[in-house]
Amino acid sequence: MTKVLEKSLDGCYTHMLRAATNISWRQHMTNDELYGELPRVRNKVAARRMELAGHCHRHPELATNRLVLWEPAHGCRQRGRQSKTYVEILKEDTNAKTTGELAVWMNNKDNWRISTRARLRMP
Questions:
Q1: Angle 94-107-91 from CA coordinates, rounded to 5°
Q2: Which residue, 24, 79, 106, 107, is most buried by CB atoms nearer than 10 A?
Q3: What is the pLDDT tens value at each position of the chain, 123 positions in all?
Q4: Inter-CA distances, 108 with 40, 104, 105, Å
């Protein structure tokens, strides 16, 4: 998901939350006051992405366990600004430096669950 899509998704969710709580956009209420303890939608999406990646990586019978952290070893990408790969997004979500470090974190189910839940508490 790009930054523009994340911003659009958060804006849509904020609009629907205001409608559900019967708060007009004319009332001067900050988004932090509106959300309260609720996590932002972009953080929920990132947490679900991390949960799915960890589940697929730990499952030995799925074909995806080898593909979740796959990065091409050769070849080149096209010119221009590159789209982020799934592995790059996971590294950003977890602040991991390498895919090996990411794999070690994913193998430890309890620590991985703690990190995904911490992602939900981010502002």
A1: 20
A2: 106
A3: 788 998 999 999 999 999 998 988 888 888 888 888 888 888 889 899 899 889 888 888 877 777 888 877 777 878 888 888 888 888 888 888 988 888 888 888 888 888 888 887 765
A4: 26, 7, 6
In the chain, the number of structural domains is 2
Same domain, 28 and 13: yes
Q: Is 120 exposed, middle or buried (0-12, 13-18, 19+ CB in 10 A)?
A: middle
Residues 26 and 73 in one domain: no
